[in-house]
Amino acid sequence: MITTDLQTRLAALSTPNHKYAIKGIKRGIEREALRINRNGTIAQTPHPKETGHPLTHSSITTDFSESLLEFITPVSDDPQQTLSQLRDLQKFTLSKMGEELLWPMSMPCFIEHQDEIALAQFGDSNIGQMKTLYRQGLKNRYGSMMQAIAGVHFNISFPDTLWQSLHELENNTQPLQSFISDKYLGLIRNFKRELWLVSYLFGASPALCSSFLQGKDSRLPFNKIGKGTLYLEHGTALRLGDLGYTNSAQSSLRVMYNSLDEYIAGLRQAIRCHSDLYGALDDYKSTSPKQLNKNILQIENEFYSPIRPKRNALSGEAPTHALERGGIEYIEIRALDVNPFVDTGISIEQINFLDVFLTYCLLKPSPEMSWEEQKVTQDNLTSVVNQGRDPAVTLLKYNEHVLLQRWAESIFSDLVAVAKWMDEANDSTKYTNTINSLSQWVKHPEQTYSGRLVAQLIERQQDSGCMALELAEQYKAFYQDVDYQQYSDKILSEAAVESQVAASSIKENDDKDFVVFLDEYFAKA
Questions:
Q1: How many CA atoms lie within 13 A of 266 on its CB side?
Q2: pLDDT digits (tens, 9 = 90+) for 289-336
Q3: What is the DSSP string of 418-474?
Q4: Domain of 267?
Q5: CATH number of the domain within which 160 lies
Q6: What is the number of structural domains in the chain?
Q7: Which pTM does this prediction carry?
């Protein structure tokens, strides 16, 4: 049964003046992928120079390590165009990698020791050195193995027409940008409440190579298969659990989402708060620095969250300063595993679902969220990460334990109504078709990504690494045969050269030494 408040909102938006307001959703995708050798080990070679400079290339760069590529698409309102751009970027990069492959999973390949994971190098300009030292700090704080995990980030912004319609329908008297920021924060709160559904459907990391657990204790009830693969029978997304991107020191940080001022204040407190855990590590003022600084967060980007409010920053501007200056411009979803079943790491099916789910999170009522409720949302996510496909698993909803299946069915009944409205606005059936298809996964967990992966492991009695290597070879062969759709080798080669020139220019324009540069940066932050 559709929620009454949501039904009322959809009815108002379906009137002639507003029925097309949702048209023009804009998206961008950031996909991470490890470079590996053909034997499945992590590549030890530097970032391929022919793809451009990682400091200044807008679409092909690196994340934590030299071997962890990141592909970034431009903003577009056409999801098929976005996937084609992503495909072109990967085709071009693979053509400059020799015999190396792209690892198609979130959890990393076999890594004998974390020292095999070389820190990303961004050159010897001040900003380049800062980026590498930040990663040195991540290594010393959390270890490199955690940083070898890959994911997909999905960025979305809603059209101006929707904001204008909602502003009018609610008779809101706030300045429009303040209204937009508040609405995005409401979306974030609802997303956090029901993030577990995204993990259930699209979690694709129920297994890992035992090499990942070097020096770690885990009480999870792993099963073993092959030579060294560990998996959870009903697990979904280990990347989002205690073995993935976690920071125990952050668990005490009260970063809240009830107002933009509250969010900014919470995050700034974290970057100013001295850490007892990391206080013994030398910072940038030392002759042999091990991290940028001794605070709980070195910089704002170190805050691990499955969703972030964002605004495009000016040169040298910190993320919270950008938000303070102009309000929330778009939302970054950071909770997606790499989808191993498609070459791009994310499918059109996922994009369609996220369009509907995030619109639903925006339109439904979103009460303020207490710190205690935030902790409940994390507990629910952990339950789904570890045992989400167990038919008996329960989650805590408004202080009551409910079956995951029952809660999911309730959400999908609302999603059907949102999808219908979106399809009418876009003269399509894609959203309804996607929601109807994925709703079947609630009663059939074997159809989820994690369910399919575990079934293949058991059926083949093979390591997850063998499966990943087969897919990596298939995708490399595919890219060798497929034509460019949005770019060309010439266009991307020219962009690579331009990025090298831009990086050199940044270095030439440095007018202070590294310590002074960071003194000034942190004084502004």
A1: 16
A2: 999 999 999 999 999 899 999 999 998 889 999 999 999 999 999 999
A3: HHHHHHHHHT-SHHHHHHHHHHHHHH-GGGSHHHHHHHHHHHHT--HHHHHHHHHHH
A4: 4-524
A5: 3.30.590.20
A6: 1
A7: 0.96
